[in-house]
Amino acid sequence: MNALYSLLPSRWTSSAYTRVPQASGSRSNGARFSRSRGASPWARTVILAAVFGAFTFLVVLVGRGWSSDAEEPLPPPPLEPWISPMNRTGPRTAVDDLLDRQSTTFERAVARYTLKTGRRPPRGYGAWYVLARTRRCLIDDYDQIHHDFEPFHQLAQKDKKYFRKMVERVKKLAGPTAPGIQVLTMEKGVPSGTEERSSLYNDNDAWMAMLKNLGVSLPDLNLNAIINHREEPRVSFDVRVVARDTSASASAKKAMQANDPTPFRTAPRPTSEYFTDAGHCLVPTDPNGFVRYANNASSFLLSSASVGFTTDLYPVLSGSKIYPCFADILVPSKSDYASTVPSDVAWEDKKPVLYWRGDSPGGWISGDNYHGFPRFRLLDLARNISQTHADPIMDVGITNLDESFCHSTECYSDGIKTEYNIPAKEQREDAYKYLLDLDGNTSSGRFLKLLKSGSLVFKSTLFTEYFTPWLRPFEHYIPVLPDLSDLVERIEWARANDDEARRIQAAGKEFAERVITPEQDDCYWAAVLVEWAGLQRT
């Protein structure tokens, strides 16, 4: 308290001295000074209390980075329980447990956020919490967002302006010099963006309407977000490799050095020369056992027809990525909002056959390299199996060969069409018990739709999407290796274990219908934008 008292202005604390005559007989012949306070003890106490309160407020404010990180939100409107016990028609499920364990108070949500990330929520989290509660979204389970933004938070400890500087660099590049990149601006929650002729979002008016709707709930949101309007990921920067090079401080310094002379225009042809031969993205086929790489089973890694990435760590919002080779920040794409017509085919009436139809993959075809593309691999596998299985277990086919990827002198489109009987006739997919979700050039964008179909979904992919941490293999779907080497074994298991196969199908359908709703996609977008604005503001 004495130290605090010393900080007060002297005119508040100094004594007033008056000269008074000295009484006769005094030992001293000089004048005597009488000391009287300029402020009463009560006044001093009040002043000290006020200063102490102001000092405490400043300490707390500085500790929070001068932001309203923990601002108290307006209370959300009253909500009914996630599931009314009176309306529950079956046994309790894992989705019930997930929804019931979500935070029901703002204080609890902040505490869980802080526990997971080691930092307080960014400004605007309170408004987001109200939005999420109102729309009945998940509150606590956004590990993918925390994972995607973590490298930028670590770099902010070295350079608080890093994120903002990288965003400004991309703003200058957006347009012809960085095709497929758009800057989304939000001022006081009102969105606007640069034009992009071909995109994942601009051709969907509902996307801009969604952003405007979110802006109403997040009126203080100000940012410049970088949107990738291509299907392919754009940030070829492996933060895990960098982190293994040397010490953490040295690797962070390396990440902050922007060395790519042509950001978002690196386009090796074929892409295998960069990803595989040069070792920039070696993806294991199986996370278990000895390592075998899946690079020769991916159109994107072999010979992508649409590629243009950067090797610097720019913040970019994308629909999918290969982790850890790419560092894009994931968001829902328009295909994730697509509605699904409920199936009226009962499980027992479905054919115990795996069904797939789709276009040819988006890879440049040269010579016989297409045999490595997953969709052609599937047809080759089905043809071989038909010779050894009297009972058909697959009905698969390519409906269209995109000849724009087959215009070199080493590509013979007519021969490919004949070899694979293209185009294949489409059937009603919900008439089959088993459906396959298979990568094209990137992820198919059909996974959520297939989960809601009422059929058991088999999924083969190298790509991570925003919902990947939520949907668990063997619980919601059947995983298949990228080279499809275990697909037949998985189908035969499902045919031999119909009850368990149906349980997995039902769990995946329930999760997709009850959790990954359009409202949940909105909440995910809002959470990403709030995190982005927090880093850009730093």
Features:
CAP10; single chain; Rossmann fold; 19 helices; 37% helix; 538 residues; five-stranded parallel β-sheet; alpha/beta; transferase
Please characterize this protein's 3D structure.
It is built from 19 helices and 12 strands. It has a 5-stranded parallel sheet. It has a 3-stranded antiparallel sheet with strand order 4-3-5, sandwiched between helices. It has 538 residues and is α/β, with parallel strands linked by helices. Helix 6 runs antiparallel to helix 19, helix 7 packs parallel to helix 19 and helix 10 crosses helix 11. It is 37% helix and 12% strand. 38% of the residues are buried. The N terminus is likely disordered. The chain has 3 domains: 62 residues, no CATH class; 235 residues, no CATH class; 160 residues, 3-Layer(aba) Sandwich (Rossmann fold), CATH 3.40.50.
Strand percentage: 5-15%
In order across it, which strands form the biggest sheet?
Answer: 9-8-10-11-12
Give the overall pLDDT as a whole number: 84
Number of helices: 19
> Which residues form runs of ≥5 with pLDDT under 50?
1-39, 55-68
Largest sheet properties: 5 strands, parallel
Radius of gyration: 31 Å
Number of domains: 3
Intertermini distance: 34 Å
Helical/strand content category:
alpha/beta
Number of strands: 12
What is the helical fraction, as a range of percent? 25-40%
Question: What overall geometry do the principal axes of the alpha carbons give?
Answer: globular
Itemize the secondary structure elements and their pairings.
Blueprint: H1 2-6, H2 10-13, E1 15-20, E2 32-37, H3 41-63, H4 94-100, H5 106-117, H6 125-134, H7 143-156, H8 162-173, E3 181-187, E4 190-193, H9 205-217, E5 223-228, H10 239-245, H11 248-255, H12 272-277, H13 299-303, E6 317-318, E7 329-330, E8 351-359, H14 374-386, E9 394-400, H15 413-420, E10 432-438, H16 447-451, E11 456-460, E12 478-479, H17 487-496, H18 498-514, H19 518-537
Parallel strand pairs: 6-7, 8-9, 8-10, 10-11, 11-12
Antiparallel strand pairs: 1-2, 3-4, 3-5
Helix pairs in contact: 6-19, 7-19, 10-11
